[in-house]
Sequence to fold (484 residues):
Amino acid sequence: MNKFKTSLVNLPSHISVKLTTLMLEEKLASYRFASPSDLQAYFLTHIPDIDLVVAYERDVKETDIPHIQATSDIPIVLITNNVCFEMERTAKANGIDLIIDENNDELISLVFGFIRQYRIYQNYKALIVDDSRVDSQLISCVLDLDFINNTIENQSENVVARIEEDPSINIVVLDYEMPNLNGCLLMQNIKTLFPERPFLFLGFTGSRNGAIKFLNAGADNVFTKPLDTEIFSINLRKLIFNAYLVQQEKKTLNDYQSFLSRISYDISNPLYILMSINDLFIEGKSSQQSIETIKKLSGQSKQNLNHVLNGLLEYIELTSQQKNASLKACSLHSMIATQLFLETEQVKVKNLIINKKYNIEAVALCIPHQIESVITYFTQNAINNATPGGEIDVRLYIENNDIHFEVEDSAKRIPVSELKNLFKEPNDKAELKPVRDEHSLDLTLCREVIHNHGGEIGVKYGERGNVFFFKLPSDQSLQTETKH
Fold:
C-alpha cells in the first residue's frame, strides 16, 4: 500500500496515544496533529495532502453536524459525546462517515478498522455496466459512499475495450437485461478474454432466471432489483475483504516459493559448491596446502551447505507457526534466521560476512510475533549500512533473566550527539511529532513494540561499528511454547 496520511484533529491524549501506537505498530498510516480552535472552520478550509480525518469535539448537537463537512472529498471520523441513533443517521446523510461515542469501549478498534477498510478499498475500482442510466447512477452513488472508485458504461459492446484500457478495474457490476449482449454472457466473455486478471463479478437482475444463470456462470454475488442499498453494501464489503485476504495469501505463497527456489538453486548448483570451496581456499591465505588442510576446508564447505539447509528448515518452522490460528508467539530463532536468509542477496552483493553467536537457552524461546518487525529493521539496517567486505555480528543471549538481541555493523559510527537520542521517547506522548519519513517511522515502531513488551531498546558502540540492541524480560509471558 502507498503512503497514507491521517489528520488527527483535537484528539485528547488518552485517545491519540493508543491510536498512534497502533497505527505505527501495524504500519497502517502516518499522521499529523491539528489543533484548530473552531472545528467547523477547520473543515471549511482546504486540507492539503491528507487522506483521512479523525476529529474530536466533545459537545456536538445533531443540528451542528451539517456544518462539519470537508470541502475536499475525504473520509471523516468524528468522536464526540452522547452519540444516539438520530445523530448517526444525520452524520451519514451529511458526509460524516463514522461517528463514535468517546465512551465506547471499542473506540480505538472502530477507528482502526475504519482506516484499514478505507485503505483496502483504495485498491479496488468498479466498472458499472447497465443500459439504464438511473440504475447505474444509483449503484455509482452507493459505491461512492463506500469510497470505491467507479465508472459507468451503458453500452455492453464497449465493455471489453474499457477493461483493456484500464487495468485497475477489478470489480465488474453487470445488469442481466441488456440489449445486444446480456450480463451473464458478457461476464463469460470477460473471463475468457482476461483469464489472468482477478475480478469480482456482481450481477443485477429482476428475474429468477437471470439470477440462476449468473450464479451458474460463477458470479460472486447476485442482487435483485429494485436494489436494497444496505444489503448490497454489506455483501460487497464481505466480498472485498475476502478477496483481499486471498490476495495476501497468494503473496505469501509467492514469497515462500521464491525463497525455496533460491535455496534450492544454491544447494543444487555445482558452481555454488565450487565457489564455496574456492572462497575457503582464498581465506586460508597459504600458498602450500597440505592434504589435511584441504580436507578441513572441504569439511567447512559442507558446513556451508548444511547452513543453507538449516536455514530452510528454520524458515519452514516459522511459516508453519504463522499458520497457527493463535498467532500469539513465534520461534525467536526462526525469526532471526529467516530475516538473515531473506537478506542473502544483499549480503552477497556487498560481500559481507555474517557472524552468528546464539545462546542455546535463548534460541529455544518463543516470543510475541510483533518483535519480528524490530529484528527485521535491525538486520536490514545493519546490512544496508555496513562497509562492503566487512562483517556483521548477530548475538543472542540471556543475561540476568533478560533476552538480549544485538546486531553490530561495520558502518561509520553514529555521532555521540545522535546516539542517545535515536530511540529516545518524547517526555509527553501527547506531544508526539508527525512522522515525516520512513526512517523515523521505523525507529518509532521499534521503540513502541519493545516498550509495549516491557523491554529496552537502543544503540551503542561496538568493536567495529554500531550495535543496535534490545532486551526483553524472559518471563512466562514471553515463553509461550508452541511445541507439543
Remarks:
- Residues 125-243 form a domain with the Rossmann fold fold (CATH 3.40.50.2300).
- The longest helix spans residues 229-268.
- The CA atoms of residues 355 and 393 lie 5 Å apart.
